[in-house]
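Q: Got a minute? One more chain.
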Amino acid sequence: MVNLRNNKKITETIFSLVGNVVAPCESFSYYKVVSDNTIGAENGATYTFDFITGHDVSYFGAVAIYLPDEYVGDFRTLGSSCEIKGFAETARCKIGASRRIDVQMNGIKLDKNKEYSIIIHNMTNP
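A: Always. Here it is, folded:
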């Protein structure tokens, strides 16, 4: 879990790898979360989640970011979007649920030593 501290509010974010093995972020060799906005409960924030897995993610696996039930925003209602960096061209990012972002590998294996980024645009600050 990654704690996001903005305006004295804490939100837990759970990274998980979807495939044959689900690995929580404690097994990542590196992760960092950065926001472009520090005003709590404000819409329109952009969050960047950088990480290095340190372990394999299968060819048809996925990376997902889940925000907890306490997160008051809804990606679909807000019109949030996601962007990915470092992934192969075949990888796709999508809003998976009201508080979940999914990145599908689509036949490409992640390099366990490479840094990847998932960027969520237009979300509510915790």
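A: The beta strands are 2-6, 9-18, 30-35, 45-52, 62-66, 81-85, 92-97, 100-104, 116-123.
Q: Perfect, thanks.
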